[in-house]
Amino acid sequence: MFLALVAAKVLAAERRGSVRWAGRALAAAFAIWGARGLGLEVSAGIHYLAAAGALDRQEPDRAYANALRAVELRPGALSYWESLEQSKIALRQFDSALKDERILNGLSGGELDETSALLYAWCHYDVGDYEQALAGTRRLIQKNASFAAPYVLQGQVYVALRNYQQAEKSYLTVLQMFPTDAPAVEGLAHAYYVSGNPAGAEEVLGETAQYSFPAGARRRFEDLKRLYAR
């Protein structure tokens, strides 16, 4: 609207012969409009960084508010949408995140990166859409067979479906590649336990003694051992 008004004045000035004034007015208009665009870009970037910081501090509400504002200011920026989806997932707004999947897919050129694709597969799992979750993990594994996270999610989906044999296969695939993958260890132990094989769960956790794990993972393994021994 602003540029339209200025353009009208420029045309009127040209008809009056005030060419110099017309040129200056048009230059000023574009300078102001450009500054405004730059201001929006800077503001969106500030909100994006604030969202990232809030996520690091585990403040999902603040992260969501800032990420949403960044998207509103620059709806064509893929990274801002990714930040918004991470915030929604942190708030367990899985259905809302899934509604945005098509938008991110379009901004990504028709193919999501591994991180976003995995997040959406998790969302499908969390809302109970297990077939879509499995489809997502299969696509990720097909593209990168050494990417551990999709196998772990796949194992969890199979446990939810009570297909313990396939769950075991998924977790063992990870552990054959990465013996110190803690989520796979815990997933396999859990699969054995819920399938009625607590001894197998304890054995899996016991075998971790021959590998190096972070202290936090070690504490978690010990807690699980006590749980499964009951």
What does this structure look like?
This protein is an all-alpha fold. The chain is built from 13 helices and no strands. α2 (19-56) packs parallel to α4 (78-90) and α3 (60-73) packs antiparallel against α4. The radius of gyration is 26 Å and the shape is elongated.
CATH architecture of one domain: Alpha Horseshoe
Text of the CATH class of one domain: Mainly Alpha
Distance between the termini: 72 Å
Topology-level CATH name of one domain: Serine Threonine Protein Phosphatase 5, Tetratricopeptide repeat
The largest β sheet comes out as:
none
Order of helices and strands: HHHHHHHHHHHHH
The averaged pLDDT comes out at 86
Structural class: mainly alpha
Q: Report the strand count.
A: 0
Which radius of gyration do the C-alpha atoms yield? 26 Å
Categorize the overall geometry. Answer: elongated
Helix content: over 70%
Low-confidence stretches: 1-23, 29-35
Would you kindly provide a brief summary of this structure?
It is built from 13 helices and no strands.
Helix/strand layout:
Layout: H1 2-16, H2 19-56, H3 60-73, H4 78-90, H5 94-99, H6 101-107, H7 114-126, H8 130-143, H9 148-160, H10 164-177, H11 182-194, H12 198-206, H13 215-228
